[in-house]
UniProtKB/TrEMBL annotation:
This is NAD-dependent succinate-semialdehyde dehydrogenase. Belongs to the aldehyde dehydrogenase family. One of its GO terms (molecular function) is succinate-semialdehyde dehydrogenase (NAD+) activity. Gene3D superfamilies: Aldehyde Dehydrogenase, Chain A, domain 1, Aldehyde Dehydrogenase, Chain A, domain 2. GO terms for biological process: gamma-aminobutyric acid catabolic process. Residues 13-471 form the Aldehyde dehydrogenase domain. The keyword Transmembrane helix does not apply. Keywords: Oxidoreductase. The lineage of its organism: Bacteria, Pseudomonadati, Pseudomonadota, Alphaproteobacteria, Hyphomicrobiales.
Length: 476
């Protein structure tokens, strides 16, 4: 796959004669392959192909669409080892995680395939005697979708699954840092019988691609996963054409460990999710607030778990934490630690880059981190864990809500009253109480405040690609 990185436009795999950029293996910093950049003509052709394909795909029955989408999911499972291997090489994440991710991405496709059969409209009694009034759910149209590098199978499948099941077509720009996984997904769709033009894949300079595609007349919806800053920029571009947009942006998930929590269980539970993909997950538990009475015990348990994790190249079967995806994350982790310690935080474990080849950074637990530290206010997106003490529920809820983010939040408590209080007062799109599994195919995945709007899972994820049309008819 790395020798053959291509664009996929109107059913054609294209790479010759295009400018390219190096694809880097984050574990070795070696060049894996060359990522071709789409020209302005390629983008125009992709948008036109998506438009032409839309005119037929929207009329393909939901059953037939489901057959093709599930067919692609089955092929992804059949090709699991090869896809996961490439995913690990290009993203750095451990191979065990890569396999789990590919299987999860296939599950997302299956779920959307089924849900597409249930894109029901409704009938509304009319005020006009004899009139029949129905609401049809129609696909929005061709979409321009932009995915980040951190979950290179999951994010594209959320966007592809929702769009295709609803009857939309798309031009997808996956990250240039993880192209092979998206191309393997596209290949599975091609082999499952997806008509040419329904799914197109392009790479290039992100800002150039988004500004051209979003301004193209054929595009009717935008979907983006990435940072809040870029999300705001795309929202402005989409506003110029009054396009629908789904934004899945950054987060800085608070974790509240209450005084009545089972501290040992809480530490285990939250560590599993915190270190998934070395913390480079938008819903990663990210700012830890631990009640004064259980603080020391929690820090001890959590540090023990963190320090025992194996930081190794992702292709090692026993790797728990692979290389960070790119040099930007490594630099960011160093800056978070330096800033926090200069403001009085204590390093409980980790704290420095491992080796000087590959982007390896160990689990790093910081205690007594002050509010002014950047780790408490900026999205971390890595294996650094800032921990603070708290003494009142009111105070900690206020802190949890103080940032502009509102994607995920977690709480550990054995009190029903505390759980209810946190549920009703935390400003978040997803809340896990006593566990962290808030990302299944059937549940809405999305944020509030500057973490974005719209959902990429559950029935809401399908709705995002549908638009209501009222038809009111008098029989003459
Ligand atoms: P970034 O926002 O620059 O890039 C994220 C993705 O957006 C990349 O795949 C990039 O190719 C794409 N992108 C960037 N500019 C674009 C544009 N103008 N038009 C279209 N696509 C564009 O961020 P990054 O440096 O890769 O990561 C930095 C931060 O982004 C992280 O710290 C994290 O906060 C956030 N991030 C969030 C998610 C998420 O799942 N919500 C994923 C990746 C990164």
């Amino acid at each position: 796959m790395f020798d053959n990185l291509s664009l996929f436009i109107d059913g054609e795999w294209i790479k010759e004669g295009r400018r390219t950029e190096d694809l880097i293996d984050p574990a070795t910093e070696a060049v894996l392959g060359q990522v071709p950049h789409a020209t302005a003509e390629d983008l125009d052709r992709a948008a036109k192909a998506a438009h032409r394909a839309f005119l037929t795909w929207k009329n393909v029955s939901a059953l037939e669409r489901a057959r093709i989408i599930s067919g692609a999911a089955a092929l992804m499972r059949a090709r699991l080892d090869a896809i996961a291997w490439n995913l690990t090489l290009e993203s750095g994440k451990p191979i065990r995680e890569a396999r789990t991710e590919v299987m999860f991405a296939a599950d997302i496709l299956d779920w959307y395939a089924e849900e597409g059969k249930r894109a029901y409209g409704r009938q509304i009694p009319s005020r006009l005697p004899g009139a029949m009034q129905v609401v049809l759910k129609e696909p929005v149209g061709p979409c321009a979708s932009f995915a980040a590098w951190n979950v290179p199978a999951t994010t594209p499948c959320r966007k592809i699954g929702g769009a295709l099941a609803a009857g939309c077509t798309l031009v997808l720009k996956p990250s240039e840092e993880t192209p092979a996984t998206a191309l393997a997904i596209a290949k599975a769709f091609e082999d499952a019988g997806l008509p040419a033009g329904v799914l197109n894949i392009v790479f290039g300079v992100p800002a150039e691609i988004s500004s051209q595609l979003i301004a193209t007349a054929e595009i009717r919806k935008v979907s983006f996963t990435g940072s809040t800053e870029v999300g705001k920029h795309l929202a402005r571009l989409a506003a110029d054409r009054v396009l629908r947009i789904t934004l899945e942006l950054g987060g800085h998930a608070p974790v509240i460990v209450a005084e009545d929590a089972d501290v040992e269980k809480a530490a285990k539970s939250v560590a599993t999710n915190k270190y998934r993909n070395a913390g480079q997950i938008c819903i990663s538990p990210s700012r830890f607030f631990v009640h004064d009475r259980v603080h020391d015990s929690f820090v001890r348990h959590f540090t023990e778990i963190s320090a025992a994790l194996q930081v190794k190249p992702g292709i090692d079967e026993d790797s728990d934490i692979g290389a960070l995806a790119n040099k930007r994350r490594l630099d960011a982790m160093e800056a978070f630690v330096e800033d926090a310690t200069s403001k009085g935080a204590t390093i409980e474990c980790g704290g420095r880059r491992l080796g000087n080849l590959g982007f390896f950074f160990p689990p790093t637990v910081l205690s007594d981190v002050p509010d002014t530290a950047s780790a408490m206010t900026e999205e971390i997106f890595g294996p650094v864990v800032p921990i603070q003490r708290f003494d009142t529920l009111d105070g900690v809820i206020e802190k949890a809500n103080a940032l502009p983010y509102g994607l995920a939040a977690y709480a550990y408590t054995s009190s029903q009253k505390t759980a209810a209080e946190i549920s009703s007062r935390i400003e978040t799109g997803m809340l896990g109480i006593n566990h962290t599994v808030v990302f299944t195919p059937e549940t809405p995945f999305g944020g509030v405040k500057e973490s974005g709007y719209g959902s990429e899972g559950g029935i809401e994820g399908l709705e995002a690609y549908l638009t209501p049309k009222l038809v009111s008819q008098l029989a003459w």
